[in-house]
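ok new one. same drill as before - structure tokens go in, u give me an amino acid for every spot. 234 of them this time. try not to just spam alanines like last time pls lmao
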């Protein structure tokens, strides 16, 4: 029987080191009280691989039982032709440079990323005897990805329900929330946002103009808080 979030038991959290997944990790640890808690982070050729250092920081802060950083760098060679988020791919666009059509699936989309990462996370959870996997999909205000939707989540869980021995369920508690609400929750939980990273360009300072930077800045503004990251465009 699949354990629901209100039940005691362990959980696996996909932890990128961004704002959403970092808040999610602390939410699962503190508000949901899941234990043992495992965090998985993936190196898949992303330009902003500096987010992985933030993931390590947040995993320590949340007191996880285990944090594994999985090397999937080979995916960079496979996927860079289809995503500007991958190092060596096309340049990351500014949000205001995206057409309306591009905002439904922007150039920063990584082909099948969430499906691949969730497949690995649920396999790891099953091997550990854990029944719950969490990922930080949220209701983007400015653009969207099909693998962050309720339909995607429902279909992933329908496939996982075929497991006859150790069923695993995927949860995305922020899926219907705007990012501002996630930021507010993180502030309430005491998340150190200075040790999170969102900018897709991955330079020393966040660019402030790429889609995720704009969304993050707007979320902090709407939450009535200051984003502690340095921004080149500030």
């Amino acid at each position: 029987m699949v354990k629901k979030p209100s039940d005691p038991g362990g959980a696996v959290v996909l932890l990128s080191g961004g704002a959403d997944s970092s808040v999610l990790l602390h939410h699962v640890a503190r508000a949901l009280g899941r234990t043992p808690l495992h965090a998985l982070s993936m190196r898949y050729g992303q330009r902003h691989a500096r987010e992985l250092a933030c993931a390590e920081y947040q995993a320590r802060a949340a007191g996880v039982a285990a944090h594994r950083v999985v090397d999937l760098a080979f995916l960079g060679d496979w996927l860079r032709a289809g995503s500007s988020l991958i190092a060596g791919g096309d340049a990351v666009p500014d949000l205001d440079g995206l057409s309306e059509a591009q905002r439904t699936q922007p150039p920063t989309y990584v082909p099948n990323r969430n499906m691949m990462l969730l497949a690995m996370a649920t396999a790891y959870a099953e091997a550990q005897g854990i029944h719950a996997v969490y990922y930080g999909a949220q209701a983007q205000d400015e653009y969207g990805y099909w693998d962050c939707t309720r339909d995607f989540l429902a279909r992933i869980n329908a496939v996982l329900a075929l497991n006859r021995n150790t069923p695993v369920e995927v949860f995305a508690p922020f899926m219907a929330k705007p990012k501002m609400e996630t930021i507010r929750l993180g502030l309430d939980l005491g998340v150190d946002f200075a040790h999170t990273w969102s900018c897709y360009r991955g330079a020393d300072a966040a660019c402030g103009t790429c889609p995720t930077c704009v969304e993050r800045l707007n979320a902090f503004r709407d939450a009535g808080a200051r984003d502690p990251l340095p921004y080149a465009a500030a």
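DSSP finds seven helices and five strands in the chain. and btw The first strand starts at residue 11 and ends at 14.
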